[in-house]
Each structure stands twice: as structure tokens, then as C-alpha cells.
């Protein structure tokens, strides 16, 4: 879509809607007002003048709608549309789908302004009676339903021309985001508009005629003209409804026809908000899934076909190579059998030499094992005695520290005993003080009773302190005695540790001498062992080499036999693969021919 097409659609919609208004609604409204208000010829001209002025004045609303639609359609121009992200594109499509419903507000504003303005202009020339004023009040019931439905369908038809564009048609939408105006609602409002106009116009005139509220001149012709105008309105309204339904139905039917012929290239445009429009989403999802499955099947069948041909080509060369290999393996098998017999004879002599060498080596290893055990025991004993020496020294240090601590404890106990004696003397003095206080309180008489109680309590406190002091002295005396006994025992233990340390030093010296002797024996036996090891290794290598040669030749013979059998089996297998590849290629070609029914 380009700028010229945008303007064309905007003008077509604006002119189309105004033609609907000017051709259908305005004549019917003017005729209804003139007949229903019993206007004279002069007043009828004024009614037409007022309606014309109101109609042209209200064109400001279509202008706003024109600009709004133009702004929205410009966003669909490819140069602008392709730079938008998916959410912005979906928003534009939703706004286009909502525009027919939103257009109802434009006509409501236009006529809600136009009808009062037409009445105002008309009544500037004369003062209306109730009969002349009443049709203007009833006019919205007559006009609004028909205009609303016809504007909705015409707007939907013109907007659908934008929605069928490639860019918008293939743009996916979620069903819950699309506003829904169902087929039931469309039929209901269409029928309501038809009956509303018919019942309002003809009913008003018939009731007025019957009740003599107004006097119709030539009632038959009047009713006939009104019926003709109503018929034209009904015809245009139903035509728009059928055309809108038919356009959407044709789109769906065309797509189903293309699907039946296997054409998956196009999707169904969402051009309405009814059940058919919402059904288009499910149908497009189905087409997309079938398109994906078809693409995968076509790609897979082509690949299978190509791979089958490649395998068939390669297996032909493999068959020729297998036949040549089978002939060569038979010749190799005869030569290997002769070589195996010669190697077996050499291996028997090597085995005897190796057995003798192994016996001598075992004796040397036993001797070495005994000396190593003795050496290990001596080393272990030496380590243990060194550890004992260190522990003895640590024990001596600990005992010396204990002796020093015991001396400090003994000094502290003596000092504590002196302090407790001082406390005892203080307790004696407190007793004397409380006695003197009691005597003085007795002299004072009644005034000294309170002081006597205090003196008595002090005397009791002194006695308790003296008693506790004696107990503490006894405990301290026992602690002093125990401390002296402990210090004497620790001193004796320290002397014993000194004797143990001297014995350990002597033992360590003897163990060192024994360890040196075992080391010399180990060095001698090591040289002997190395010589035997070299001899054993040499004998084992000879035996192993001959055994390996014999085993290798036997295995080689078996392998050649297996290769011969495998070659024959593989040759047969390759023939089966050739047949399988041919069958697979044929099935892949058939699958491709079948899936080519779908066009993606």
C-alpha cells in the first residue's frame, strides 16, 4: 500500500458513509418530520434548509474520522511498516479490526449534534408547536439503529481491503486479543434496526391518525412514500449485511477449496470480528502446522533418496574389494601355518631356560626378604627408642614444672593460713566489741534497745566468722600436708625418669650398630639380586617373544580365517544393502510424489 491508496480508501469510506447518511437517513428523517409535524409547504422548505445546514455543519466529525483513519493506514505503508516490531504491527492490525465498532461513536456524535442543530436552525424562523417539535425528539429512535448498523458493515467492508494485504494477512494474532462482534449480535442488531425504523415511523403515523393527534392529508400516499423510503433503507441495510457476510464467507470457501487441492501457500485474512474471523485464526494455525510438517517430510524424503543413491554407489565398489580380499586371505593363511610350527619349537627351548633362572631368582628373593625384615625391625626399634628418649625428656620437664608448681602451692597455702589467722583475730575483736556494745546498751536502758539488737547480731556474726575460720584453717592444714606429700612423690618420680633415660641411650647405641650391619648385608644381596634379575629378564624376554610370535601367528591365522568368513558375509550383506537402498530410494520417491500434492 502507498500514499495514494491510503487516500483513496479514506475518501471512499468517508464519501460512502456520508452518502449512506445523505441518501438514506436524511430524506427519511426530513419526510418523517414534515409528515409527523404536519408542516406546511413553507415550513417544509425551512425544515429542508435546517437539515441541509446541519448536515454540512456536522461534516467536522467525518473530517476527524478521515484524519484518524489516514494516520492509521499510513502506518501500513511498507517503508514504515517493515521497521516496526511484532507487537507494534499486531497493535495496528487490532486497531483496524476495531475501527468499524469505533466508527459508531463518530456517527453518534455527528447525529447527536446534527439533529438539535437542524431543529435549532428551523425554529429560528418560527415558534414550533408540540406537534411540530415532537418528530425531532422521536427521530433518534428512527435513525440511529439503521445508521449504526449500515456504517458498521460499510466500514468493515472497506477496512477489509487493507486487512487482506500480504503484510497484515500473515500477521498472527491471539484470539483473546481480538474484539468479538458475533454473527448473532450482527443479525440481532440488523433486525432490530429494521423493526425499529418500521415500527417507529409507521407506528407513529398510524397512532397519530387513529387518535386524531394529527390530520394526515392524503394518508395513503403519505404512508406509501414513507414505506418506500423505509424499504430502500431496509434493502441497503440488508445488502450491506449480506455483502459483509458473503465477502468473509467467500474468503473462507476459497481457502478451503485451495486446501482441498493441496495449496498451503496462502493463509486466510482476518477481516471481521465475528465467528468467521475468529475461526480464521484456528484455520491459519492448522495451515501453518501442515506447512511445517510437509516441509519436514519433503526435506526428509529428498535426503533419504539422496543417501540411498550414495550408499548404493559405494557398495558396488565395496563388493569388488571384498572379492579381491577373500583371495588374498586364503594365500596368507597357508604361509602363516608354516611359520607357526617353527616358532613353537623355539618357544619350547626358551621355556626350559626361563624355568631354571626363575628358581635361582626365587632363592635370592627369599634371602633378601629375610634381611629386609631384620633391617626393618631394627629401624623400627631404633625409632621407638628415640621416641621413648624424647618422651622421657618431656616427662622430666613436666615433673620439674610440677615440682615448681607444688612449691608455689605450698607457699600459697602457708600465706593463706596466715591470712585466716588474722581473720580469726579480727573475729575475736568483733566479739569483744559486741560485748562492750551490749554493756553500753544495757546502761542506756530503753534508748539503747535498738543498739543492743545490733550488738547481738554483730556478736553472732563474729561467732559464725570464728567458726568458719577454724574450719578453713583445718582444710588449709590438710592441703598443706597433701602438697608436701605430692612434692616428695614427684621428686622421686623425676629421679626414676633420669635412670630410664640413661638406659634408653645405651639401647639406642646398640641398635645403631646392628642397623649398620644389616645395611651392609642388604647392599651385598642387592648386587646378587640385580644380576639374577638381568638373567631372568633376558630369559623371560626370549620366552615371551617366542610365545608372542607363536600366539601372533596363530591369531593371525584365525584372523585371516575370520576375515575370509567375514568377507563372504559382508559381500552378502552388501548385496542386501544394494537391494534395500533400491527399495528405500523407490519409497522415498513415492513419498515425495505423494507430498508434492501440497504446495508450500
UniProtKB/TrEMBL annotation:
UniProt keywords, alphabetically: Membrane, Transducer, Transmembrane, Transmembrane helix
Domain of life: Bacteria
TM regions (residue ranges): 15-39, 45-67, 105-126, 138-163, 183-207, 219-242
Domain (Methyl-accepting transducer): residue spans on this chain: 300-564
Keyword Transmembrane helix belongs to the record: yes
InterPro entries hit by this protein: MCPsignal_dom (IPR004089)
Family matches, as SUPFAM superfamilies: Methyl-accepting chemotaxis protein (MCP) signaling domain (SSF58104)
Presence of the UniProt keyword Repeat in the record: no
One Pfam family matching this protein: MCPsignal
Matching PANTHER family: LYSOZYME-LIKE PROTEIN-RELATED, METHYL-ACCEPTING CHEMOTAXIS PROTEIN MCPB
Protein name stated in the entry: Methyl-accepting chemotaxis protein
Organism of this sequence: Leptospira yanagawae
Amino acid at each position: 500500500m502507498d500514499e495514494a491508496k491510503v487516500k483513496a480508501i479514506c475518501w471512499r469510506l468517508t464519501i460512502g458513509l456520508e452518502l449512506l447518511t445523505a441518501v438514506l437517513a436524511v430524506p427519511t428523517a426530513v419526510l418523517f418530520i414534515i409528515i409527523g409535524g404536519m408542516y406546511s409547504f413553507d415550513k417544509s422548505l425551512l425544515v429542508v434548509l435546517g437539515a441541509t445546514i446541519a448536515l454540512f455543519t456536522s461534516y467536522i466529525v467525518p473530517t476527524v474520522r478521515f484524519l484518524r483513519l489516514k494516520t492509521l493506514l499510513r502506518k501500513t505503508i511498507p517503508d514504515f511498516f517493515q521497521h516496526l516490531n511484532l507487537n507494534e504491527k499486531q497493535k495496528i492490525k487490532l486497531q483496524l479490526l476495531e475501527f468499524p465498532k469505533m466508527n459508531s461513536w463518530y456517527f453518534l456524535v455527528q447525529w447527536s449534534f446534527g439533529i438539535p442543530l437542524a431543529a435549532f436552525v428551523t425554529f429560528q424562523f418560527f415558534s414550533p408547536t408540540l406537534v411540530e417539535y415532537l418528530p425531532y425528539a422521536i427521530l433518534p429512535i428512527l435513525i440511529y439503529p439503521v445508521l449504526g448498523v449500515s456504517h458498521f458493515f460499510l466500514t468493515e467492508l472497506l477496512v477489509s481491503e487493507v486487512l487482506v494485504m500480504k503484510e497484515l494477512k500473515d500477521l498472527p494474532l491471539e484470539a483473546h486479543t481480538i474484539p468479538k462482534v458475533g454473527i448473532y449480535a450482527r443479525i440481532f442488531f440488523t433486525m432490530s434496526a429494521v423493526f425499529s425504523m418500521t415500527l417507529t415511523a409507521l407506528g407513529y403515523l398510524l397512532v397519530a391518525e387513529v387518535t386524531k393527534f394529527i390530520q394526515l392529508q392524503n394518508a395513503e400516499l403519505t404512508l406509501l412514500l414513507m414505506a418506500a423510503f423505509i424499504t430502500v433503507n431496509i434493502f441497503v441495510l440488508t445488502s450491506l449485511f449480506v455483502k459483509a457476510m458473503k465477502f468473509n464467507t467467500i474468503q473462507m470457501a476459497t481457502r478451503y477449496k485451495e486446501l482441498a487441492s493441496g495449496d498451503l501457500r496462502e493463509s486466510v485474512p482476518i477481516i471481521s470480528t465475528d465467528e468467521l474471523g475468529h475461526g480464521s485464526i484456528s484455520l491459519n494455525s492448522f495451515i501453518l502446522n501442515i506447512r511445517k510438517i510437509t516441509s519436514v517430510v519433503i526435506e526428509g524424503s529428498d535426503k533419504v533418496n539422496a543417501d540411498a543413491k550414495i550408499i548404493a554407489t559405494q557398495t558396488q565398489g565395496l563388493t569388488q574389494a571384498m572379492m579381491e580380499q577373500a583371495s588374498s586371505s586364503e594365500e596368507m593363511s597357508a604361509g602363516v601355518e608354516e611359520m607357526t610350527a617353527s616358532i613353537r619349537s623355539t618357544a619350547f627351548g626358551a621355556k626350559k631356560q626361563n624355568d631354571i633362572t626363575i628358581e635361582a631368582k626365587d632363592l635370592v628373593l627369599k634371602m633378601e626378604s629375610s634381611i629386609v625384615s631384620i633391617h626393618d625391625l631394627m629401624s623400627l626399634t631404633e625409632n621407638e627408642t628415640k621416641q621413648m628418649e624424647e618422651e622421657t625428656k618431656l616427662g622430666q620437664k613436666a615433673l620439674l614444672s610440677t615440682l615448681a608448681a607444688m612449691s608455689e602451692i605450698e607457699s600459697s597455702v602457708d600465706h593463706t593460713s596466715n591470712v585466716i589467722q588474722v581473720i580469726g583475730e579480727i573475729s575475736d575483736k568483733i566479739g569483744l566489741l559486741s560485748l562492750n556494745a551490749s554493756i553500753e546498751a544495757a546502761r542506756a536502758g530503753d534508748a539503747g534497745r535498738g543498739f543492743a539488737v545490733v550488738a547481738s547480731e554483730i556478736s553472732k556474726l563474729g561467732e559464725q566468722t570464728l567458726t568458719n575460720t577454724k574450719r578453713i584453717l583445718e582444710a588449709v592444714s590438710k592441703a598443706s600436708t597433701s602438697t608436701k606429700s605430692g612434692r616428695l612423690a614427684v621428686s622421686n618420680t623425676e629421679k626414676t625418669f633420669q635412670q630410664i633415660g640413661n638406659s634408653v641411650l645405651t639401647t639406642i647405641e646398640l641398635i645403631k650398630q646392628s642397623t649398620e650391619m644389616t645395611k651392609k648385608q642388604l647392599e651385598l644381596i642387592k648386587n646378587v639380586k640385580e644380576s639374577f634379575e638381568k638373567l631372568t629378564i633376558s630369559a623371560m624376554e626370549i620366552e615371551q617373544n617366542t610365545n608372542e610370535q607363536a600366539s601372533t601367528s596363530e591369531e593371525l591365522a584365525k584372523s585371516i580365517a575370520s576375515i575370509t568368513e567375514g568377507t563372504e558375509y559382508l559381500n552378502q550383506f552388501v548385496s542386501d544393502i544394494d537391494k534395500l537402498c533400491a527399495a528405500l530410494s523407490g519409497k522415498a520417491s513415492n513419498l515425495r510424489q505423494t507430498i508434492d500434492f501440497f504446495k508450500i
